[in-house]
Fold these 3 entries.
Entry 1:
Amino acid sequence: MSAVGTGTPPVARESIDASGCLVTPGLVNVHHHLYQNLTRAYGPMTDSALFGWLRTLYPLWSVLNEESAHVSAWVGLAELAMAGCTTSSDHLYLHPRDGGDLLSAEIAAARDIGMRFHPTYGSMSLSEKDGGLPPDNVVQDHDEILAASERAVKQHHDRTHGAMVRVALAPCSPFSVTKQLMVDSATLAEQLDVRLHTHFAENDEDDSYSLEKFGCRPTQYLQEVGWLHDRVWLAHCVKPNDDEVRRLGMAGVGVAHCPSSNLILSSGIAPVVKLRAAGVHVGLGVDGSSSADSASLWLEARQAMLLAKLVSGAAVGTARMALEMATRGGAGCLGRLGEIGELSVGCVGDVVVWSLDGPQYAGVVTDPIEGWLRCGPATAKHTIVNGVSVVRHHQLVSNKVDAMLSNHARLARHMQSAAQ
């Protein structure tokens, strides 16, 4: 106990017995594409790298609409909560013509299930006819993107302490939008006082594209478009060289480390130990559920720990390092340090209780945190968001689970039939 409040104590909604358990802050997911769970483990794409993977899946995703965005977000957030996530971002960069207001549909799902949510209004402006990867019917023009971005912030963004919904602007990637859109999105984000997010230096193809198209490395491109500052967090950041790591740290940017997705797509291993040492806020992301496929931040934390051991040494890649990335690192990416991602005075009531019993934890005596991440697999016994239980005794509290899963199965079959 570090502090006791004054005045009349609040009436407890429920009492939780955490005897023999590990209690952690709620985990923070800083990169996802929730709609992609509708094409999870899609057979034709199990052996493809990033660009080929995208070219095959874009036509399927082009049938996304408000219903499928809502249901996939609900199911995806439920899955995250089961593994101890209390705050999630989402990078929704796909806006099919006549698809409706997909961002509002996602936010309604988060509010219904009770998750703290950081959706981004993502965008693409370069389609196949412009030399880009996506089909023409899922991109928007420059002015349309900026107007919709501003509208989304004004409609949904909450700046108050403990806010349940905050919106960021997120052009998909340097190879799917124009340079001018990157510049204008940064200007608009500053005017609206919101954060910026994009994919960055994800693999060798990404780096080669930057050199060929822009004549510079990705970090130099970020500086040229006004993105090299502490309002920005970047997804993946697999391929920065040492000078770029230093520059990213000096700028105070955040990085969403997505280890499982990076491995499945053969992108590489992000240098997270070097990034953290340089001053970068490194959080964890489960990425889209068509590449990482399992939306478990516990799994990503374990994967991050193991990869750090492989790259930087066993003594460096610890469970505590991974837990910090999954909590305070994510809070830093989202600009919410001292508010989420920690159990301290003044922070919100986002708490996870993990059981450390059963055969998989037998013998864990000296260090429960190492045991929690090195043993397992782990699911949350209780996930509490803003003081309210979302998961209780390993089960979702909502009574909508069966109906949502049934709807999700129908919508997934419909989306995947688009390839037939």
Entry 2:
Amino acid sequence: MKLQAISTDKAPAAIGPYSQAVKVGEMLYCSGQIPLDPATGEMVAGDITVQAGRVMDNIAAVLSAAGVGFDDVIKSTIYLVDMGDFAAVNEVYGKCFKNHKPARSTVAVKGLPRGALVEIEVLAANAQ
């Protein structure tokens, strides 16, 4: 199968040797997004709600670059530094999934790149 790297300047550039997303057939595998401002490459200032909002905006940009959207997401994984932030992140996340609810895991981690409080990755289907 042919692999196609997906990239957009509307989401932060990769901070390592990886792609923002990779399309394989009808599947789109998106790398985890942290709350980096794509214009500056810097972490957004603010609490978990602000960070989660930036993460979801970054994900939306990568999905859009692949020609899909949140309705095409079939699985997501949320990484939280503090499980006490679960409800706040859930509220922000839920606003993006109005028409359908993908499968999801939420995992507590000791730390995330650049000191982020949240990282989210998604898997989408029917990538055109």
Entry 3:
Amino acid sequence: MSNAKQISVFVDNKPNQLTGIMALLKKSGVNIRALSLADTTDFGILRMVVNDTDKAAEALKNASYAVTVTEIIAITIPDAPGQLSRVLDILGADSVNLEYLYAFTGASDKSVSFVIRVDDNASASEALTKGGIIQLTEQDIAEM
């Protein structure tokens, strides 16, 4: 199974909250590879994949942000019609529940990468490997 990690940050839904987080990451020398922000009326959840998960999490925690680090699956597939559908078919065939996903730019303009959060990383990873889907590691992401 690949080992990729995502940082989730609880953010108040108020002006300049995201600005503070971005400034902190900049000061820490952390580069964001993927980002998703989901909000409600009162708060949001910022999800990020970065080039140095430990450094980012430590900087955010030291600044009193509520932070969690979770294992995710990061994949890269050809940038062509039907490729994401193929991935979803592979996961569905093994009854893996997809909780959410978001895309990010890969290392090539001929591919696209996705963060996938599922209910069972081990089963998903095994199914994707059998299906020929390339999974990215923390090191792969850091080197992008």
